[in-house]
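**Reference record**
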Amino acid sequence: MSDLRRYFGPELLDEAVPFTGSRFEHLAGGGDSEAVANVVTADDLIAVQTLSVRIPAQVSLDLLEGDLGVRVSELLSSVRFDIDMVDAEADDLAEGSPAHTAWRLLCDQPGIGWVTAGKILARKRPRLLPVYDQVVRCVLGRPKSFWLDLHGALRADNHALHHDLTAVRRSANLPVTVSALRVCDVVLWMHHRTDHQQRSCIGT
């Protein structure tokens, strides 16, 4: 819980300085607000960069004004923004689903790898799709299909993990706009980020 407090800011722990990623969900009202849920906006691109990734200028322009933005919007229109991953079906996340197709489309853009593609989609669907990067992948032992593995873990034992994550969120006095997925991401990332930076990192 202390890691969540450190990450999300001084209003929770006076001596802490929040990480820039603490604004990821909330900048400009969030990427999943109904008015913009199916459109990648300039606010989304700034929000994603608070998570320490850079989107090339040409890709940004294509998302905002070009065909890429149109194609992503069409796919997002088929991905629910009002559902948590724990309540979704595996088919909503599997290869060939609109969400996975959008991720693959973004991955194929120059300068956009799997990490940045995932963060863009997590901004648009924070309750359904997780932030996922090299640190979290390492600590989890490099799972083959993170979305589906996480989905299974959240649903196991009558959704026990999901309930644990929301309980931790309440204990840290975080708003419900910080999804259970984001709580999971921040806890794992904060736990392992220092070790991961060392050459001898082997995860946990």
Q: What stands out?
A: The two ends are 19 Å apart (CA to CA). The chain has a mean pLDDT of 92. The first helix runs from residue 2 to 8.
